[in-house]
Write a structure and sequence with these properties.
3 helices; about 150 residues; seven-stranded antiparallel β-sheet; globular; Alpha-D-Glucose-1,6-Bisphosphate, Chain A, domain 4
């Protein structure tokens, strides 16, 4: 098993309320994550999805579930716990993520802190490779969130 801590900030030209509303809409968030898809919901706080990730020569197709464990509307903060498995490749991942929206002079800043545990064949590629892939995914995710929130009404 390999554990990875991800801390990122995204500056957005959108109101904190709009960014937080977006953060609470899993279908919209998933649409911004490269290789991911929304597969429905079990209840108002539990969602199903999938993501295809390539690390080195290995392509992994995770299917999983994510649950909004804590939502603090006053602080514009949400804690999400998710886990997924790749039945064909024996890989699994678990993530605990906290997203918080802070007001700024030009709009908002979305702060994301995620603790990710990966197990299976992906671990053989090492923490550096997994971290590099995560950074690239987050860069694309950030660009798509900006497009969704800064260009749409």
């Amino acid at each position: 098993m390999s554990t990875l801590m991800i801390e990122e900030k995204i500056a957005l030209k959108a109101t904190p309320e709009r960014v937080f509303e977006f953060l609470l809409d899993p279908e919209r968030v998933v649409s911004c994550l490269p290789g991911a898809g929304y597969d429905g919901k079990e209840d108002d706080k539990t969602f199903l999805g999938h993501i295809k990730v390539k690390v080195g020569p290995v392509v992994t197709n995770f299917k999983g579930v994510a649950r909004m464990e804590e939502i603090d509307e006053a602080a514009r903060s949400v804690r999400i716990v998710g886990e997924g498995k790749d039945p064909a490749g024996g890989n699994s991942a678990r993530m605990t993520m906290v997203g918080r929206v802070e007001p700024t002079d030009g709009g908002s800043e979305l702060r994301v802190v995620a603790d990710v545990e990966v197990s299976g064949r992906l671990v053989t590629f090492g923490r550096g490779m997994i971290q590099s892939v995560s950074a690239q995914l987050f860069k694309q995710f950030s660009a798509r969130i900006r497009e969704a929130l800064e260009t749409a009404p």
